[in-house]
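Inputs:
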Amino acid sequence: MKQKQQAAKPVILLNIDSLMPHSLETAAQTGRAPALKFLMENGAYFHNMVSSFPTMSVTIDSSLLTGTYADKHHIPGLNWFDNCRKEIFNYGTGFRETFRLGLRRSVHNMLYRLNNEHLSSDVTTLYEDLAAKGISSASINSFVYRGNTPQRLHVPRFLSTLTRFKNGKWTTDTTSIFSLGSFSRLRPRGFTLQIAAGNYKYTAKELRHLIRKNKLPGFTFCIFQDMDARLHLKGPGYIKGIVKIDREIQNILNMYPSWEEALKQNVWMVMGDNGHAATGDKYREFMIDLRKILKSYRIAKIQRPVRKKDQLVICVNQRMAYIYILDDSLPKSTLVQQLKNDNRIDIIAWKDNGNIRVESGMRGGSFHFSPNGEYKDVYDQTWNLEGNLNLLDLDITDDKRLYYRDYPDALARIRSALHSHAGRFVIVNAKPGYDFKAQSTPKHLSGAAHGSLHRQESLVPLIIAGTAEKPVGSRLIDMKEFILRLCMSEQE
Ligand SMILES: [Zn+2]
């Protein structure tokens, strides 16, 4: 007799920020991360999921939750310039790493405007799609949270004078279960030292609370955001953070009669968001000072509104930067010539008459591309290509197939950044080891940094356990469809 059909298993996605394939494999293999090892051995492991570009958390989380790159979701990076309002947006320099008090604009931009104004209303989030099917979600520790449950959030009293929220309160649409540091917590007596995001222990406690109270919704997204800051300081080889977070995951799995039983009851997924590229230690050599390269122009200063006579605005996202040209009489080509003089800049890209043009400070020649052409890449996207393929380390075969090497899904990702917002701008990407600098940007010497298009930062791991299903593609933008499918599938 056919068994009664049951609702799908709850899906739990743990996003460990800056988790990288090699460190994860080392930690698991050497017995230092038994919980992750168990999930890897009893599930499927992918070591090369492609993140979005720039490889910055807000852009990546928006891609994961909307299933689109920045050309559709419109979150261009941590730091970008709105040409219509002539306003620089910074969601908090070092967003995950140093969310500082007193950054009144950052609080407002990050907690409210990102979700309510910037994240495009033409795309839906995974939470919104699930809610439309009657499936509820939980978001723990994520700054990108748009759902459709109006939630009144409270700014902690010590912060309220520094924010633009009336009486320190604001209403925003979130997931039905929503936890974000001091702003909203699930456990009545939960306490976090961090203002906005809780640390890894806090995230794990909030998740355990849901499990203990039998309140796991159809989908739960949890972010552990502790490793990023450590990796920036210590370099990509840092493994201790994985060991600590693994202990928390062990405690979570221990809530079930056995770890096998945990897999029977839920789908468990673990992923990273971006990798890190090791950086050199000599300031003059490894920091690319864009203001110095472009010193012949008048560059807007971040502490005051953009002025009419300013010619350029520079928004740095660690190892990539957007350079905006406000002066209409200044051609992009003139700026590109100056940038090309620096051999630490590996990619310079801009929109050029319906095409995208690429040049480099490292390699000669020029390259153009546009979508819908005769070459087909591994993601089934087709492209017109012309010029020096080495500029993006591309390979083509006689049957017009296109393969990526150092820059995964390079064409779609460069295109997405160039179409993520309005304005006349050029994108620059630093070669591994180097970091961009403009006014007041954090330095990452002798440690690691991210932001660029390179595979070191772009390829992240994914573990799926508790189901035999898999995403159809190997990009983070394929996760939304996959999770929807999992949450809606019925079991026998
Ligand atoms: Zn970071």
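The pocket of zinc ion is lined by residues 96-97, 228, 232, 450 (CB under 6 Å). Flag for discussion at group meeting.
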